[in-house]
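Tutorial handout. Part one gives the primary structure; part two gives the three-dimensional structure as tokens.
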Amino acid sequence: MTDLSWGAPNLLHAQCAAFVDARRRGEPLAWDDGMAFLGALRQHASQAPFQRLFEAQAGFNAREFKALVIGVEAELEKLMARRYIEGDAGSLEPELGDGYSMAELEGAALGLDGGGGDLYFVGCGAAPLTAMRYRELFGTRIVCIDRDAEALALARRMLAVRFGPAEVAAGFRFVHASAEALAWPAGSVTRLLLAAHLGGKEALLRRFATALAPGARVLVRLPMGLYAHVYDEVDFSAAPQYEVVSHVSDAAEPFCCAAALRLLRSTHRVPGVPGVPGVLGGSTATAA
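Part two.
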């Protein structure tokens, strides 16, 4: 498969179905094919719910469709990290540029240019382009948290290529854990970023409420378009400990999702605990 750019819808669906069949057979994922598949879905997402189209024309259900897209996203991110580590950054310039643009937008919303402690990035993934740029632009120390050990190891190696081991040791911390299993000291976190692919964001926001210092900024990446059907949406009324400050902007997150950015401010009050930066603690997570 070389082109999913489009033409007649039935041709697009046939090409996507061929891609799906290859995935079912366990064929290795090729970078160009995976990117073309996701690009085609994004391009057509506004025309009709893709779950129904695939149920009718490709012979599989919505649950399988979601699992397929999520799996392709994760594999492509790991492929990207490996290519970068192996010295192929030049061919990734479009993705890198998107990541840098996202970082500038998000950094401004989070107030990273004003100091104020570490940024806790939940669901950083294997190719943390925005984290890379946060460090370059703002000098922010970033706590990269992910439940996928392989993704986290690739993220560390990718950042080491960019910065060198000493700078990575100074500017990043890597925590292998499910976010639900983490425990922060009360009032210790001033900036938090939740990746778009995370499930159960309302529960995570409730869990993190006491860890956030009063007035802490939280940026939530929200899936849009096709990805609103694939990844969980967020009911902010289920997290009353936060004030929704603004809808920052619509932007194309470079890899995972088309994302809208919603900025929150913690309104939870922790008696006697000042809003100062802290570190992870009280957790069984493995910090690398």
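Part three, for discussion. Residues 111 and 176 are 26 Å apart (CA to CA). The beta strands are 119-122, 142-146, 172-176, 189-194, 212-223, 242-252, 258-266, 286-287.
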